[in-house]
């Protein structure tokens, strides 16, 4: 196949012809480290209290434990979610499996971050959290998977007892006035600095049984899961979010 001809500049073309000066990006002051919140972030957990969180089941104050700058799951209290609702956003969240984590497969340090909580229980779109360090399970259910949809591009787990991080860009789905899907949700995510989801297009909400599908919704909370597995509970710290244009 012959190579296509390269376009030529018209006579009199100048560098200025392809320079633009507006819109001007807003100034965002970065944090002192890459994991610290930038100036436009909403800090959802700074190690002090759970004022930004409520119980998912009844919207009462969140019943998880805060000690030593760390939030730890209280399984009997159930899932928690943010008081605020969000569309598209950038999220930073750090989590730790206990050093004495026990069990195997999905029964080992299981939790999840629901990028949009669309209802009670485990309704929503889940990025899986669990101990996937030398712990086999179905690959579309291991840590950093879009649960039962997208296998992570890498297993970037550190050993139990060490802090893990997710940095997530979430593009919320959009719906037409009649409730039909206008544009699907998308996710890009890094675990411990390693790309694990690359602009993955979700086919619907997370379903434990059956295929995913969409149901129309607006802005939603971010939810953290209190999974019912028998292993010791996991912990979280340093959670912040930046709202993005929908």
Written description of the protein model:
- A hairpin with a 2-residue loop joins strand 3 and strand 4.
- The protein is built from no helices and 15 strands.
- By secondary structure, it is mostly beta strands.
- The strands form 3 sheets. Strands 1, 3, 4, 6, 9, 12, 13 and 15 form an 8-stranded antiparallel β-sheet that branches.
Brief overview:
This protein has 246 residues and is mainly β.
Estimate the mean pLDDT confidence: 96
Strand content: 25-35%
Which stretches are low in confidence, meaning pLDDT under 50 for 5 or more residues running? none
Number of helices: 0
| Gyration radius, rounded | 21 Å
| CA-based shape | globular
The quaternary structure here is single chain
Order of helices and strands: EEEEEEEEEEEEEEE
Amino- and carboxy-terminal Cα gap: 42 Å
Using DSSP, what is the number of strands? 15
Helix share, percent: under 10%
Structural class: mainly beta
Q: Main β-sheet, in a few words?
A: 8 strands, antiparallel
């Amino acid at each position: 196949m012959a190579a296509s001809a390269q376009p030529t500049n018209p006579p009199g073309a100048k560098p200025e012809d392809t320079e633009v000066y507006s819109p001007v990006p807003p100034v965002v002051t970065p944090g002192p480290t890459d994991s610290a919140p930038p100036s436009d972030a909403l800090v959802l957990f700074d190690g002090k209290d759970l004022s930004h969180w409520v119980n998912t089941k009844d919207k009462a104050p969140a019943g998880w434990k805060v000690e030593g700058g760390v939030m730890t799951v209280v399984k009997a209290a159930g899932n928690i979610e943010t008081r605020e609702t969000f569309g598209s956003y950038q999220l930073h969240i750090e989590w730790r499996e206990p050093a004495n984590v026990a069990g195997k497969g999905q029964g080992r340090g299981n939790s999840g971050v629901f990028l949009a909580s669309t209802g009670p229980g485990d309704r929503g779109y889940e990025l899986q959290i669990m101990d996937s360090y030398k712990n086999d399970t179905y690959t579309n259910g291991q840590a950093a998977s879009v649960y039962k949809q997208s296998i992570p591009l890498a297993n970037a787990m550190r050993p139990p007892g060490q802090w893990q991080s997710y940095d997530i860009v979430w593009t919320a789905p959009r719906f037409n006035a009649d409730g039909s899907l206008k544009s699907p949700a998308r996710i890009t995510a890094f675990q411990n600095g390693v790309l694990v989801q690359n602009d993955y297009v979700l086919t619907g909400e997370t379903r434990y049984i059956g295929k995913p599908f969409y149901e129309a919704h607006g802005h939603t909370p971010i939810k953290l899961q209190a999974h019912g597995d028998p292993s010791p509970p996991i912990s979280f710290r340093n959670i912040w979010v930046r709202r993005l244009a929908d």
